[in-house]
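Dear support,

Our group has been running a series of protein-ligand predictions, and this particular one with 5-O-phosphono-beta-D-ribofuranosylamine is the one our PI (initials K.S.) wants archived with full inputs and outputs. We had some confusion internally about which version of the output was final, so please treat the block below as the authoritative record. The input we submitted was:
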Amino acid sequence: MKPRIAILISGGGSNMISLVKSINANKINAVAAIVISNCKDANGLKRAKDLSVPSKLIDQKKFEGNQEFFEESLHETLKKENIDIICLAGFMKILTKSFIDKWNNRILNIHPSLLPKYKGLNTHQRAIDASDYKSGCSVHIVTAELDGGMVLGQKFVNIDKNDTAQSLSKKVLIEEHKLYPEVLNKFIQNLDK
Ligand code: GRF
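Confirmed final output from the archive:
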């Protein structure tokens, strides 16, 4: 049976698109079962519809800051959809340990830095400010430590003298779109072993 993937987004969803396209092209032996956004304005929701992937909004605002209820609703949806693997793709909400424990070693995330460097936000500016000559992206297992789980794969880009956070983010994003499908594919192959 092909593993069923849920892709969680909060914004544009370009990584979601690259995952769905790789699945549809049979480059990943999986089913793109559902795209879930925690933000109603996420452009990725419309893009998921364009790709004919089922999508759902679980609007975090409706939970008025109650993370437990938000995560309960998320968990129920994932169970109902028989999800095997969760891919966070620009999902900007930090999940609690209690939720992560329920999906132990089954949640992946893509992060725009060469972990363990620059966990958290503003990764590109921090790499430039540190005069780093290279940056990149990482896919890792999600644990309760923010951006701290085992790194499964990375891709590198050079930081040029004239790079800004914006230009660097564009370069890194191109690599993200290659890295996430590659890592998800290997992750699934290893599940069978
Ligand atoms: C990506 O840079 C990802 O690494 C980070 O958020 C961004 C999401 O971009 N976590 P998109 O929504 O996939 O276009």
